[in-house]
Amino acid sequence: MTTYDRSTTRTTASTGALRGFAALTGITSLAIFLQAVTAGQFLQQEGNEAWVEAHGVIADVAWGFALVTAIFALVTLRKAQPRLTVLTVVLFVLTLGQTGMGHLITDLGQDAWIPVHVPVAFVVFGLTAWLSFKAAQLRRASR
After folding, report:
1. How many domains are there within the chain?
2. Whole-angstrom Cα distance, residue 132 to residue 135?
3. Which residues have CB under 8 Å from 80's CB, separation 6+?
4. Do the domain assignments include residue 45?
5. How far apart are the C-alpha atoms of 51 and 42, rounded to whole Å?
6. HSE, side-chain direction, 13 A CA sphere, residue 53
7. 66-121 pLDDT tens trace
8. Got the DSSP string for 45-105?
9. Looking at the domain assignment, is residue 83 inside a domain?
């Protein structure tokens, strides 16, 4: 009978994959940070349409970058960093859901979503900060 020891076959991500992931995570984090900045420019939608519009456009950019980052992680990091990959996909799902809620609030006037939208924004912000930190840490360790 043959035994198989999984601990001796640990997969590692390439330096290029980690560098690419760190760059994509950084860009995604920047877009999400800009979301926080633009959200702070309006407390009510009245009279702040330009900031609301900018917030919506940046939201679409943010979920687009989150999608690209998640796909990149699935392709390049799935075996070496499964937890990181799952959290990157979670960030995409949360960002897309956040954008959907934002459009319900601004486009359809469904302000009842605000008590959900704001706390989820904090979760997204925290997760993107953690992913950026972890990506930079892994990139530096791979040198």
Report:
1. 1
2. 5
3. 11, 12, 13, 17
4. yes
5. 7
6. 4
7. 999 999 999 999 999 999 999 999 999 999 999 999 999 989 999 999 999 999 99
8. STT-HHHHHHHHHHHHHHHHHHHHHHHHHHHHTTTT-HHHHHHHHHHHHHHHHHHHHHHHH
9. yes
